[in-house]
Amino acid sequence: MTDRPVLGIDIGGSGIKGAPVNLETGELATKRLRIETPKKSTPENVAKVVGEIVANFADQIGDGPIGITIPAVVTHGITRSAANIDKSWINCPAEKIFEEHLGRNIFLVNDADAAGAAEVHYGAAKDHPGLVIVTTLGTGIGSAIIHRGVLVPNSELGHLEIDGHDAESQAAASVKDKLGISYEKYAKRLQRYYEEVEKLFWPDLIVVGGGVSKDASKFLPLLKLNAEIVPAKLLNSAGIVGAAWLAVDRFEHPDLLLPSTP
Ligand code: BGC
Question: Is 79 close to ligand 1, i.e. is its CB under 6 Å away?
Fold first, then answer.
């Protein structure tokens, strides 16, 4: 790993946030910068905002790689889905667009996969020797599956079909807000969701991230599961930190990864 801080950028539906990360500690080296996501959040418009964030931290990060998260499936640098973002990301060579716009090596990764990597390297699942599932409860549900520190990318467990519904349409944190229900009622939805996740994957540890994890004491104790279930530790820096870690890992071990599509 590198001595210099590495820039991580987290693209979300309402804000694009970035900060240089100290990869020794997993902490932000400088306060993060947040810029509103453009109303029309096309790849080109988002790349411009990402460019502003990179320019803002250019002095600190040198010319190293940058990690960027996106709430979409990413295979070989191509974004394949767009559950809660502009549909123009579907089948878009997004990594290449960012690389051309920024003139740097970019690693583009699913937002929940980045959060999972951060929790496993620095947070609630640090050095866990078994099977960890990290879920992020927000506008949608994101997931990361990590076994003995190795990420299995693009797991998309927010889209499991449960009782005839797309799981995130029933159990994302945005559903709690939209319906205005209590944490007790929301916990019943989470119980059904995590039961199904357990039945299929049998994780040793489930980590719950996303904005609601700050209130974890109000709903996690109500869940009855086989696996231990704990709140995430990195809260709103998880995406930034995980993206930075994965970017360095990718460019330090290019031989271990399938190449991005040219
Ligand atoms: C998307 C995932 C994303 C998650 C959290 C889901 O709707 O399909 O790719 O990780 O939302 O943003």
Answer: no
pTM, entire model: 0.96
What does the alpha-carbon distance between residue 14 and residue 179 come to, in Å, rounded to a whole number? 20
What's the gap in Å between 58 CA and the centre of ligand 1? 29
> Ligand 1: distance of its center to the CA of 133 in Å?
14
pLDDT at 258: 53
Express each pLDDT in 122-172 by its tens digit.
Answer: 999 999 999 999 999 999 999 999 999 999 999 999 999 999 999 999 999
- Going from the N-terminus, what domains does the chain have, and what CATH number goes with each? 6-113+237-256 (3.30.420.40), 126-232 (3.30.420.40)
Q: Which residues contact 123 (CB under 8 A, 6 or more apart)?
A: 26, 207, 232, 233, 234, 238
